[in-house]
């Protein structure tokens, strides 16, 4: 299934039904009084989050959602039928944004969380409502009101405790695949990960969710590559794991590659840049200890005092247990 994380839709609630003007006409009942019924309320439009969905692809093709109008009232004080509500299901983590004002209306972060996004019109009143001691034959009714109409933008931001970022082929997908249930694609060419992938990690009877996003390259903030498109999926993460390849296939500098990712992150979103970030040096089994020390000593300059660094080999499972244990302890705090 194709991963779609944003779309714009139009929601239209149903109009309220009109009230009725009617008078009783029964045999042997002289001067029948007013008995026009009320209209029915218009149907509402609801949005509800569902844990079984992980993409907005179903809403990419259907752009307009229209609830049913309320029925008009009729004689014998019969009220019109209420219009049927409609419910639109979205994945957990969906932000609802007013397309015109850019105001965030709601953020659905729990299963079966529901919001009324467009309210149906109010029913009109029949002439029986206006009967009084001074007006026994009212010829007055009210019309139903118009239902709300809104254009909204839906943005899916995945809910994960931990997020990975780094250059293509840094080993993010290998790490996520080895520690979780995620079925990531692994190959020796860039951008094997084309869409964000979530995996569930279980260690020491504790669980956490980790997100793998496509690699970030230079000038990603200006449209190059794929990573910048999916950086928003790291916004909810409590920890970012910056995976650094200490032995890149193209013989580039690990430190320069690290600087590129950090710069693109800062340009994209300063709040995301300030989030807790741990450096994870991957593929340490491929180079000498002396070279690793040089890289670490230089990289430490980019770490805050409370941030950590780890030496791992994702493919050989070196250092991974310690990393996962520390993540669990950090999340517990």
Helix and strand run? EEHEEEEEEEHEEHEHHEHEH
Mean pLDDT: 87
- In total, the number of domains comes to 2
CATH fold-level assignment of the largest domain: Rossmann fold
The main pleated sheet reads as:
6 strands, mixed
- CATH architecture assignment of the largest domain: 3-Layer(aba) Sandwich
Record the strand order, biggest sheet.
Answer: 10-11-9-12-13-14
Corresponding CATH superfamily of the largest domain: P-loop containing nucleotide triphosphate hydrolases
Distance between the terminal alpha carbons, to the nearest Å?
36 Å
Summed up, the helix count is 7
Structural class: alpha/beta
Our Rg estimate from Cα atoms comes to 30 Å
Uncertain stretches = none
What fraction of residues sit in β-strands? 15-25%
Total number of strands: 14
CATH class of the largest domain, named: Alpha Beta
User: What coarse outline follows from CA principal-axis ratios?
Assistant: rod-shaped
Give the helix level as a range of percent. Answer: 10-25%
Describe the overall structure.
This protein is α/β, with parallel strands linked by helices. It has two domains: 151 residues, Spo0b-associated Gtp-binding Protein, Chain: A, CATH 2.70.210.12; 171 residues, Rossmann fold (3-Layer(aba) Sandwich), CATH 3.40.50. It contains seven helices and 14 strands. The strands form three sheets. The chain has a six-stranded mixed beta sheet, with helices on both faces. A five-stranded mixed beta sheet has the order 3-1-8-5-6, with no helix packed on it.
């Amino acid at each position: 299934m194709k991963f779609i994380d944003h779309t714009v839709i139009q929601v239209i609630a149903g109009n309220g039904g009109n009230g009725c003007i009617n008078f009783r006409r029964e045999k042997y009942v002289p001067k029948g009084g007013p008995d026009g019924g009320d209209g029915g309320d218009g149907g509402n439009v609801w949005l509800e989050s569902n844990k079984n969905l992980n993409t907005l692809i179903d809403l990419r093709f259907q752009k307009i959602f229209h609830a049913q109008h309320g029925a008009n009232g009729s004689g014998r004080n019969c009220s019109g039928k209420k219009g049927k509500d409609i419910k639109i299901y979205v994945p957990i983590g969906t932000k609802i944004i007013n397309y015109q004002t850019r105001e965030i209306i709601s953020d659905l972060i729990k299963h079966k969380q529901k919001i009324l996004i467009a309210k149906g019109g109010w029913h009109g009143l029949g002439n029986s409502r206006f009967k009084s001691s001074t007006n026994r034959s009212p010829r007055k009714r009210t019309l139903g009101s118009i239902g709300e109409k809104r254009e909204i933008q839906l943005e899916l931001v995945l809910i994960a405790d931990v997020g990975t970022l780094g250059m293509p082929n840094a080993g993010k997908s290998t790490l996520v695949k080895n520690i979780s249930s995620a079925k990531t694609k692994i190959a020796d060419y860039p951008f094997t990960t084309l869409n964000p992938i979530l995996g569930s990690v279980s260690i020491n009877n504790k669980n956490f969710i980790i997100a793998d996003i496509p690699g970030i390259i230079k000038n990603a903030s200006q449209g190059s590559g794929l990573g910048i498109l999916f950086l928003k999926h790291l916004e909810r993460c409590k920890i970012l794991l910056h995976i650094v390849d200490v032995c890149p296939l193209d013989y580039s500098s690990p430190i320069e590659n690290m600087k590129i990712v950090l710069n693109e992150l800062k340009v994209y979103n300063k709040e995301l840049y300030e989030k807790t970030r741990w450096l994870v040096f991957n593929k340490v089994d491929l180079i000498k200890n002396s070279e690793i020390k040089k890289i670490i000593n230089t990289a430490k300059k980019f770490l805050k005092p409370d941030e950590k660094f780890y030496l791992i080999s994702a493919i050989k499972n070196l250092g991974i247990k310690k990393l996962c244990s520390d993540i669990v302890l950090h999340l517990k705090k």
